[in-house]
Amino acid sequence: MNDFELFRFQKPYSLFGNELNSVHKAHEGRIKIAFVYPDTYDIGMSSLGYKILYHLMNEIPDVVMERVFAPLDDLEAFLRKNNSPLFSLESHTHVKDFDLIAFSVQTVLDYTNILNLLDLSHVKLKSDEREYPIVFMGGTASYNPEPLADFFDFFAVGEGENIFPMIVDIFRKWNRVCKKDFLDSISELRGIYVPGDFQIVMDKGTKLTFAKPKERKHVVLKDVVADLNSSYFPIKPILPFGKIISDKAYVELFRGCTRGCRFCQAGTIYRPVREKSIEKIKEEAESILESTGYEELTLLSLSSSDYSYLTELTDLARKLVEKYKISISLPSLRIDKLPVDILRLETEQRVHSVTFAIEAATERLRKVINKTISDEQVIEAAVTSARLGFHVLKFYYIIGLPTETDEDIDAIISLTKNVYEIASRNKTSKKPISMHLSINPFMPQPNTPFQWEPFAGIEYLEEKRKYLYSKLPGKQYDIDFGDFKMNFIETVLGRGDRNLSKVIETAWRNGAKMDGWREHFSYERWVASFNESGVDMNFYTREIPLDSHLPWDHISTGVSKSYLKREYKKAVQASFTQDCRQDVCVGCGINLELGCPAFDSKIPK
Q: Which residues of 153-179 are buried (b: 16+ CB within 10 A; e: fewer)?
């Protein structure tokens, strides 16, 4: 299909594959990798991790990596009608003709997309039904790989900058005859999970299944990048022709977080904390801005206020704004460490909104989730923001948290009203204060202290939604709730075992795809698919006993299960655990297996 023919489809710019800084190589004599993001171009091209690995692998001389995204409906219909396989962007080569098909999966709601893309590519769905090409998966969803274990040859667990080139190196030496020989070799790498190396056993108490090594006596330990200052980072990222979800320049400040919020999976799987130096941040930021012409730069981390050299970072941000005439943002700000100078810089750039993750509205419940900010600090942050000129205050809340009571729900109302009234009295903007509340349900996730907790239930959440709407009327309160049915399915898939493979395939065959999009998601379709598969969906949202085997126990984040249990018990007691970067080691286990630089007092500037 030539470029002219692509104009018949929606968003043809997402199909050309010849954007500025895209990489084009001849295939002959090279290892060919199809790099698949199981969502649309607009979403996939907004992923920093996807961009990093794309450019990293294309710098290897004998490797060519090309992008593949989920097609929009019109292109999919055309491919199916003409029995034509899905193709890559750069060369329009059929995906089935690549040597390796690598999926980057960040959310469980993309699971049906994976099957849809394999089918569109004319690649057999099940690992045991195909010999070639090799199909594998990485990304945050790989920390519980069991629901997809039937479909992938192996999983790459952890950060990809180290492990991806190692995978290719082993592939380079393989004779491409017997897949098992390749999988046997690759299973020796840290972070590689080959489902065939494990047997499935049922926990007698919970009836959940878990994976047990057939021969190896250890779990699969994630791979990490030890030093961000020397790790690869693309300074000439692809510039999309059309608008994507997040079209701006990015630079990482650091990876990892030691705050220890007990509901947060990212705070576990991205440990240990590794910071970039100020000089490295400056070098990368200037290189990207000069090579792309972007007018907006975001400095990324899980907790930006915790960067060790925040004063120097503020100075750098101001210099970049002045030199390149750009806007700059620093997301993930902490109320208890509010960087006033950064906020002042944002208001100077006519940024009108500021976001705070409150999570819980009572101090008791915040202790349960290990987020000990006081109401006074919340009020102070709101007052500071209003005085700086922000007139849109965005608060994130979670409902359905463990130990939640009606008093905690009422506190959302009273705290929101209190913040609005006080901020309104202290505002400097001519516009009225507007409160935007994003309220989402608690979803128990693997590898967190709350992984044993139940999902609150759709009826309970709907009741709280109606109550909060009724108590916060008026145009000054803009409240957005998640789709609770979608959150329910997300919890089921996230905590699932290998029995869900048949459910996912059934759901896909029943028409499920693009489940992360509200306009495509069908709860009724999922209910029917669970019933058809003979699997109880509520089985995966219940409370799990602490001494149970879990479906993801064989995948190690480096944080010990005993630490997660201790944190769970402290949550029940509403007991707080200090941030180990500011206090003593909390014994999470990461320093024993992967190294923990959190206590280095001489992090390079």
A: bbbbbbbbbbbbbbbbebbeebeeeeb
Contact, 395 vs 353, CB < 8 A? no
585 pLDDT tier (thresholds 50, 70, 90): confident
User: In sequence order, what are the residues at sequence separation of 6 or more whose Cβ sits closer than 8 angstroms to the Cβ of residue 420?
Assistant: 393, 433, 435, 476, 477
What is the rounded average pLDDT of the residues 295-314? 93
Neighbouring-strand partners of residue 396 = 357, 438
Across-strand partners of 152? none
Pairwise CA distance, residues 71 & 458, whole Å: 32
User: Residue 402 corresponds to which tokens in the numbers above?
Assistant: 């463990």
CA angle 464–467–468, rounded 5-degree value: 85
The length of the chain is: 605
Q: What is the pLDDT of residues 4-14, one digit of tens each?
A: 688 888 898 89
Within 13 A of 196's CA, how many CA atoms are on the CB side? 15
Distance CA 337, CA 340 (A): 9
d(CA 519, CA 268): 32
Within 121-274, where are the H helices? Answer: 160-173, 179-186, 266-269
pTM of the predicted protein model: 0.94
Per-residue tokens: 579: 């941030």
- If pLDDT is split at 50, 70 and 90, which confidence band does 372 have? confident
The residues pairing with 68 across neighbouring beta strands, listed in sequence order, are 36
Token digits for 482? 């998640």
Whole-number Cα distances in Å, 314 to 104, 167, 298, 318: 33, 39, 13, 6
CA 285 to CA 306: how far, in whole Å? 20
Look-up of token digits 């299944």: 209
Euclidean distance between CA atoms 450 and 361, whole angstroms: 19
For 146, which DSSP code? G
Q: Are 146 and 498 in contact (CB under 8 A)?
A: yes
Report DSSP state, residue 94.
B
Phi and psi at 320, nearest 5°, equal -65, -40
With CA atoms as reference, report the closest residue to 276 among 312, 242, 243.
312
Sorted by sequence, the CB contacts under 8 Å of residue 376 that are 6+ apart come out as none
Among candidate residues 514, 552, 541, 509, the one with its CA nearest the CA of residue 528? 509
The pLDDT tens digits of the residues spanning 536-572 come to 999 999 999 999 999 999 999 999 999 999 999 999 9
Give dist(CA 123, CA 194) in Å, integer.
Answer: 19
Kindly state the helix (H) or strand (E) to which residue 466 belongs, with its residue range.
helix 458-471
Nearest Cα residue to 117 out of 44, 54, 186: 44
User: How many angstroms separate the CA atoms of 308 and 246, rounded?
Assistant: 27
Burial zone of 81 (CB within 10 Å; 0-12 exposed, 13-18 middle, 19+ buried): exposed
Say if CB 283 and CB 332 are below 8 A apart: no
Handedness of CA 209, 214, 216, 220 (dihedral sign): negative
Contact 23, 90 (CB under 8 A): yes
Query: What token pair was written down for 262?
Result: 């007990």
DSSP state of 68: E
All structural domains of the chain: 3-211 (3.40.50), 352-499+535-543 (3.30.750.200)
Two tokens, residue 315: 């100075």
